[in-house]
Amino acid sequence: MRAALAAAEPAGDEVTVRMSSSTAAELANWAVDRGHLPPHYTRNLEPRPDGEFRPHFDYLAGDPVRPFKIHVFQDRGGCSYFQVGLRLQLRIIDDQLEVTTLDQIVETANASRVLEAALWVKQLVQGSVDRSRRAAANTQLTVGGRAFTARAVSAHVAGDDLAFELRLASAAPRTVAPTMVR
Predict the structure, then answer these.
(1) Separation between Cα atoms, residue 171 and residue 149, nearest integer Å
(2) Dist. CA 76–CA 53, nearest whole Å
(3) Among residues 92, 29, 102, 116, which one has the least CA distance to residue 67?
(4) Which residue from 107, 145, 109, 105 is spatially nearest to 128, judged by alpha carbons?
(5) Ramachandran class of 30: left when φ > 0, alpha when ψ lies in -120 to 50, beta otherwise
């Protein structure tokens, strides 16, 4: 007699979501255009309504060194353009999504000569920049009228994709007071 098939793994409560990095860049642009992300930043990259600089995100799969691009347009108080190249690292720490930009460097600059010279000197002295930001790694979803909590339990860059493992659980039903008819 041949060996029997192994029992199937029970259905889990985790699902992996993969998104192409170019789709993520377009979603970021959509979020900026719709006001879900700040549209303007200061020279120090602080989001401010009176900021002079507006970002546009892109992903170039053919660039093996720094495929994520941020095109920065100065649309107030001057006229300049910068292209910043970087790599991303994603991970979950303490129930928060941490996004780290690695090897961030200005690859192209079209600005006043003084500003371009200052930028190149700064990069020469400082080198590439690594920065991290954290955000909540959980949310509530409603599918077919059922509410679920979704918590990211892992996140990483997989080739040209962003991968997230989500743990889903039924959300506690909302208690609604009965309608009183008089």
Answers:
(1) 6
(2) 7
(3) 102
(4) 105
(5) alpha
30's CB contacts (< 8 A; 6+ apart) are none
H or E element that contains 133 = strand 129-136
Number of residues assigned to the chain? 182
> At 8, phi and psi to the nearest 5?
-70, 145
From the list 58, 57, 22, the residue with the least C-alpha distance to 41 is: 57
**What pTM value is reported for the model?**
0.78
What's the token pair of residue 126? Answer: 């400082």
Chain segment 104-150, per-residue pLDDT in tens: 999 999 988 887 888 888 777 777 778 888 888 888 888 888 898 88
Residue type, 156: H
The tokens for 171 are 């959300």
Kind plus residue range of the DSSP H or E element containing 140: strand 138-143
Q: How far is CA 118 from CA 82, 114, 157, in A?
A: 13, 6, 33
Neighbours of 115 (CB within 10 A): 16
